[in-house]
Amino acid sequence: MTVKDVKSKQELDNIVKDGSPVMVHFWASWCEASKHMDQVFNHLSGDFPLAHFLRVEAEEQPEISEAYSVSAVPYFVFLKDGKTVDTLEGAYPSELANKVSKIVGSIHAGEPAAPASLGMAAGPSVLEAVQDLAKIDNSASGKTHPQASAGISDSLKARLEKLIRSHPIMLFMKGNPEQPQCGFSEKAVEILKAENVKFGTFDILSDNEVREGLKKFSNWPTYPQLYCNGELLGGSDIIIAMHEGGELKQAFADHGVGNDDVSKSTVAGPNGQQAGVTNSTGLSLALTSRLENLINSAPVMLFMKGNPDEPRCGFSRKVVEILKEEKVDFKTFDILSDDEVRQGLKVHSNWSSYPQLYIKGELIGGSDIVLEMQKSGELEKVLVEKGIMSLEDRLKKLVSSKPVMLFMKGTPDAPRCGFSSKVVNALKEEGVKFGSFDILSDEEVRQGLKTFSNWPTFPQLYYKGELIGGCDIILELKSNGELAS
Question: Domain named Thioredoxin: which ranges (predicted)?
Fold first, then answer.
């Protein structure tokens, strides 16, 4: 059975109703991981012809995304007998295959549930791309971080910078334009030829140092990678989307490069800079100034689709909910109301999708990153560092984040001191469910909590936001039979 694109919630509901196994892939056109996982998803659909394999473009179908609590892509929902039985978030091909097999059954009777499509039908290029993606944070958000080049030798960094800037338009690909070695590279070459631009290429299969180094340098895990005037535009899915939307030609023009007509139309300034255009992005000085003013118009600024009362996509809605949960005052800008801002901000911040969250003028990320930061406590930490939230407010939220909350050295599975280990064992023996925070992971919390609770050592156990005590008190409560009650 082939993968079917779902266009409405009603259509999806009708398919789910019949009770057959249903696999749904929520994806986004800008997400590199979605592209590669979609290849695996397609091959799995051929191995399991009795199941429904459906694809939902998450941002275009906010009603469906919201119904299934989708906040990041790629995201998979598995249904059977009309009910959701499992989910998977991120680029994990083996896990995807195993979950499908578990719900539908093995491919052939008597065979194990791990489908052969991962090793054969999917092909090595797809697997390699997905495995590369699985090694990173699975956010696959499309942002490049210059600081990601940490860990690369100065000599390699200099070589990569020289290669990236060796042509105004530079494509790092598998193979060469005459003989591409993967479908994604071949598609990128076709698009550049269709755009009628001159471009240089580098075969990353010919040099493993460049191949591995460039992933870290640009914080982009797959190939091809397209650069314009030294700036990463993205991989194959972004190149395709920009080409089909007419944005790729504009991006080249904004950077002052492209075909002969574009090149001749540029006007050089006194320092060789295009007149009225910033060196770093190629955007006009007027637009750059406007974008910076918008970004800095509030300490916490969210560029989203719609507004907080009526978000126009599930990802925007999720970030609004997170900011409200954090009790943060924030201002928003509806990028659907101004195409100049919508397109310009992508280039200015080198971030290809929306929403975009800024704190004190600094880009934090999109919905997947904001969600992950909230889950890990990193968002609150940043808010404190930026002066948006006080340390006391953060500590109050932390100690009340679970009914029973333990601040310890290490984690319940791997305590880093004997006292923490004893308290963990005591709580487990009493059957008490509890949350924990590793104070070794955050010096600000470690020192701040001592003052906040007037308790100088760790572990510290809290119940409904109130301090119970440390190791000796907990053990005494347990021995008296009072801990559980």
Answer: 1-105
